[in-house]
Amino acid sequence: MIDADHVVAQIDPDLPPPSILRRDVVLVAGPWLAGTSGVAAALRHRLPGHTVLEAPDLAAGEAPAAVVFVVSATAPMTESDCALLDVVAADTDAVIAVVAKIDVYRTWRDVLDADRALLAQRAPRYGAVIWVGAAAAPDIGAPVVDDLVAALTATLACDSLERRNRLRAWENRLVGGHRRLDRDVEGAGREARLTVLRDERAEQLRRLRLDKSQRSIAVRSQIQQARVQLSSFARTRCAAARTALQEDVATISRREFGGFAERVRRRAAQVSDEVQEAAARHLADVGEELGLPVGAAAESAPVVEVGTAPRWSRSAETRLMVLLGAGFGLGVALTLGRLFADLAPQWALAGGIGGAAVGLAVTLWVVGLRGLLHDRAVLDRWVVDVVTGLRTAMEEWVATRVLAAEASLGRAVAERDAVEHAGMDESVTRIDREIREHGMQRARASAVRDRQVPVIERALRAVRAELDR
Ligand SMILES: Nc1nc2c(ncn2[C@@H]2O[C@H](COP(=O)(O)OP(=O)(O)OP(=O)(O)O)[C@@H](O)[C@H]2O)c(=O)[nH]1
Ligand SMILES: [Mg+2]
Q: For position 76, what pLDDT does the model report?
């Protein structure tokens, strides 16, 4: 066992060792156009006994014995330069930082100082990094890489190189392990997923409540509207029928009296049909608009009993009428008789007889006409009674029909609510289950982390203490 591994094994022999392959090579790396290839070439030339590689030449999982990190002398390192160094030197403790192209940038020393301060601030380990200036491929003159070569040679010759590199790899491994445990607790996007789930759950419940109340409001308002409109329709049709029948009565002759009741019956049946038809149409429209079954009419509108036109007794009136008509006829007869007696005494007898005949005729006419008018008035009242009865019956029927439709819609709404409730229950249960699963996973990961982190931290402290020595 390598000495460095022993440090960790003392704390916990089960901690997994670094999974890297250490290669006895020098890695030259740096940001874009920093002068990396130039430095690598110069080092190959000056140190033929060593293998000098650039980053692409190293396979994943391989770590070099030493890292030469090249930065440009143009300007201090950027955040991405530092991040690159973190990656290439993760498993290697020996790092030499080079400010390149110092032949053209006179202020390279300032840049070097700034870079050194920057790195020292970034991580304690970088405080010990050796900084040198170099011009591996100068425009004029020979390469200036002596300091670099000297520093690198010394580093590679150091006895503790292997051990320190191993310890650094251990540190990287332990930090990575720690981070992985933290990540497991957080879960990949778990918080975001939980937020989505909670939102989804609240939205489902909200939508269900909203749909339910909207549906019942819609049913209530449509039913209300149907009630008002259909009653009004029934009333209007009855009024129209009454007007038409009254007009008929106003001009009816005595001969037509017999068939009048039949006419009223037909008219009442027609009104009843119209109201039923209108109700069926309106309620079907309501059902279609709500997307719910309204249910057919349980019973059709009642046939209003019209009966027969009243057979009136008018004995007292008839007697009075006869009396008045007779008086009137008598008056006419006397007047005519007197007229003839005065104007043509020789025609007095004939005039008297003629006057009596005319008086009788007038009597009969007056009595007949008065009787007809009276009968029409009676018929008119009867029509009003019949239509009033019809209207009451139609209004009652409409009210009952709308009530039945309301009950049927109510049942349909309740059924649909129940179905949607069941569907929603299922999806809410699914969401709850997923939320619980996330909670359990987190709890499990948390338990694992709580168990392992103290060990990892102890090992990390030991490794760092060894490195600091
Ligand atoms: N003046 C001067 N120019 C240099 C020096 N080193 C490299 N250059 C020039 O800088 C440019 C980049 O040099 P490279 O060594 O190819 O740099 P690199 O980092 O490998 O570049 P990429 O691989 O393209 O990222 C080239 O034009 C070199 O001629 C130097 O020390 N002095
Ligand atoms: Mg290059």
A: 94
Query: Mapping DSSP to helix (H, G, I), strand (E, B) and coil, where does residue 60 land?
Result: coil
- Nearest Cα residue to atom 17 of ligand 1: 35
**Alpha-carbon distances of 207 from 203, 211, 215, 221, 361, rounded to whole Å:** 6, 6, 12, 21, 88
Which parts of the chain have pLDDT scores under 70?
1-2, 297-298, 301, 311-315
pLDDT tens string 418-433: 998 998 899 999 999 9
Q: Select from 37, 19, 20 the least CA-distant residue to 28.
A: 37
In terms of DSSP H, where are the helices of 21-145? 36-46, 79-88, 108-122
Residue 466, in any domain of the structure: no
Amino acid in position 239: A
**Residues 179 and 237 both lie in one domain:** no
Q: Please give the tally of structural domains in the chain.
A: 2
Which tens digits make up the pLDDT trace of 130-159? 999 999 999 998 999 999 999 999 999 999
Q: Which domain holds residue 436?
A: 197-451
Clarify whether residues 154 and 228 are in a common domain. no
Can you give the pLDDT at residue 370? 84
Q: Which residue has the tokens 């709850």?
A: 432
**pLDDT, tens digit (0-9, with 9 covering 90-100), for 437-446:** 999 999 999 9
0.85 surpassed by pTM: no
142 in any annotated domain: yes
- Lining ligand 1 with CB less than 6 A are 30, 32-38, 100-101, 103-104, 135-139
Q: Which ligand is nearest to the CA of 100?
A: 1
Q: Which of 54, 69, 101 most suits a substitution to test ligand 1, by most atoms within 8 Å of the C-beta?
A: 101
97 occurs within a structural domain: yes
Atom of ligand 1 nearest to the CA of 104: 1
> What distance lies between CA 145 and its chain's CA centroid?
69
- For a mutational test of ligand 1's pocket, the pick from 27, 32, 36, i.e. the residue with the most ligand atoms closer than 8 A to its C-beta, is 36
Query: CA angle at residue 386 from 385 to 392, to 5 degrees?
Result: 90
Q: How many angstroms separate the alpha carbon of residue 23 from the centre of ligand 1?
A: 26
Look at residues 186, 216, 236 and tell me which one is the last residue of a structural domain.
186
214 shares a domain with 120: no
- Assess whether 182 and 203 both reside in one domain: no
CATH of the domain at 20: 3.40.50.300
Which of 186, 217, 232 terminates a domain? The answer is: 186
Residue 467 lies in a domain: no
